[in-house]
Amino acid sequence: MTREETRILDPLLRHVRMLAPEWWKELKYQTQFGPEYTDFPYFPAALEFDALARNAIMHLNEDRKNILVQQWQSRHRIIKFESEQEIFEQYGSMLLGYIVETATWAGTRSYFES
C-alpha cells in the first residue's frame, strides 16, 4: 500500500475494529492459535469483518474515494480494473487483509487466558 492509501485505510481499520470488538478479540486469538484456512481471508473470524470493511470503503467521502481511484491507477497493478466500483471492491478486500495483518501483530502482544 502507498502512504496515501494507508492514510485513508488506517482510520477505517480502527472504525471497523471498534464496531466489532468481540470479533476483533476472536480474530487476534485465531491468528495465534488457529483455525486457519487456505483461502483468503484465512481465519473464520475475519469473515465477520468482510462486510464491515467493504461498507466502510463505500461510505468514504467523495474526495477520499477519488484519491483511492487515483492511487490505484497511478501504480502498476497485477489486476487492472476499469470501473471505480471494482476498484472500491478491491480496496474492501485490501482493508480486510490489513485488518487480518494488524490482528496478527496485535495478537502477538495479547494475553489470552487458557
Q: How would you summarize this macromolecular structure in one to three sentences?
A:
With 114 residues, this protein is an all-alpha fold. Helices cover 72% and strands 0% of the residues.
Architecture overview:
Helix 2 packs across helix 5. The mean pLDDT is 92. This protein is mostly helical and 114 residues long. It has five helices and no strands. It has helices at residues 3-19, 21-33, 44-58, 62-74, 84-107.
- Structural class by helix and strand composition: mainly alpha
What is the helix tally? 5
Task: State the low-pLDDT regions, or none.
Answer: none
- Write down the secondary-structure element order: HHHHH
Major pleated sheet: none
Helical residue percent band: over 70%
Strand content: under 5%
Mean pLDDT, rounded to whole units? 92
Number of strands: 0
Cα-atom Rg, whole angstroms?
15 Å
Features:
single chain, about 110 residues, mainly alpha, about 70% helix, elongated
Topology:
Blueprint: H1 3-19, H2 21-33, H3 44-58, H4 62-74, H5 84-107
